[in-house]
Amino acid sequence: MLVTQNVSSSEHSIGDDFNVTNFDDQRLLELAHRPIKIGIISILGVMITLGNIAVVLVISSAVAGWSRNSRYFLLSLTGADSAFGLVVMPLNLCVSLVKDHSEGPDPFCHVVAFFNATVYSTCMYTLATISLERYIAVFKPLNYSTVMTRKRAVILIAFAWVFPIILLLPISFPEGIIEVHFSTASLVCNPLYSSNVTYSLTLTGLIFFPCSTIMTYCNLRLWLAAKRQRSKLRKHHFGGSRNRPKVASRVLVPVMTVYYTCWTPCMVIMLYNAMSGSGVPEWIEFVAVWLPTSNGFLNCIFYFWINRSFRRKFHLLLQRLCLGLCPSVGIALGCTATTEDNMVSGVWDNNNSLQERSSSVSSTCTLLTLAAETHI
């Protein structure tokens, strides 16, 4: 019996040493990959910040085809997306550079994890409110001004920003129910949801699934409506209907595809960690955790740059900026303020009341234009 116990003890010791060796090798490999990951995160952060700065410069003033409420919602989305590059990335990079990775959880890491989760959740809620506003603008155009009043729009935006703070507040408590550690694989302060499966499932059920359901329903209805409208135009032989670009397919489908591509892996891994209690390979975790932040840059493309009115307003602002900073260089480059630009600018700067009454749809869809043509 003593021999057996000694052998077993010896085997157990060898197994422990083997596990420790594997763990150390994995940690060293993650630390070796850290400069590459920091470079990827930094480049992504610069792209998100510059893209959203350009968006703020344009939609802070009136843009043709966008109602005032639409601009409020889009400014809210821009603020949430900008927080990826201005808050989430700097905080986590700061932790990755100054924190001793052998340490356990600390108050600063809890605060960083709280900001991470709050910004991610606010972005999802904001995308859902934009889809809801667009749905009302298209399907209830005559009642838009009474259904989506400025007060209700502000309440929806406030909910998208305040509710995640209240819901995720327990993450910020160092001695709370959620344990947080810094992950050398993803360079993020991560809550260990495996220690509280119920809380993890609650977060997923109150954030990702409701927002995804609203976005899917609203955008699917918009896509079907646009498809029916296009069929009617073709059936009644309206001129140019065959050559008209498929606005819904070009905007709505990419928006939903990018949303699910960016957010689903992160949610799946969170649920997997909660239910299995084990992690995933290093680069899979890194990509899944940081992929949602790329949505902050892609939103600039699908919600703004694909819109012609936005591009024209941006070019006009660039011309004004060029002429204001260096008139001689601006004239040499052809940045001249023409009469047409001044007329367009005047229309853009004075069309808020008209847009509110017609309840024009936001920048991601021009379905009202198609609907108006059916009455010609």
UniProtKB/TrEMBL annotation:
Signal peptide: none annotated. The chain crosses the membrane at residues 38-60, 72-91, 111-132, 153-173, 201-226, 247-271, 283-306. Residues 51-303 form the G-protein coupled receptors family 1 profile domain. The keyword Membrane applies. CDD domains: 7tm_classA_rhodopsin-like (cd00637). The keyword Hydrolase does not apply. PROSITE patterns: G_PROTEIN_RECEP_F1_1 (PS00237), G_PROTEIN_RECEP_F1_2 (PS50262). GO terms for molecular function: G protein-coupled receptor activity. It is a multi-pass membrane protein. InterPro entries: GPCR_Rhodpsn (IPR000276), GPCR_Rhodpsn_7TM (IPR017452), TAAR (IPR050569). SUPFAM superfamilies: Family A G protein-coupled receptor-like (SSF81321). Pfam families: 7tm_1 (PF00001). It is found in: Cell membrane. Coiled coil: none annotated. Keywords: Cell membrane, G-protein coupled receptor, Membrane, Receptor, Transducer, Transmembrane, Transmembrane helix. One of its GO terms (cellular component) is plasma membrane. Belongs to the G-protein coupled receptor 1 family. This is Probable G-protein coupled receptor 21. It comes from Chanos chanos. The lineage of its organism: Eukaryota, Metazoa, Chordata, Craniata, Vertebrata.
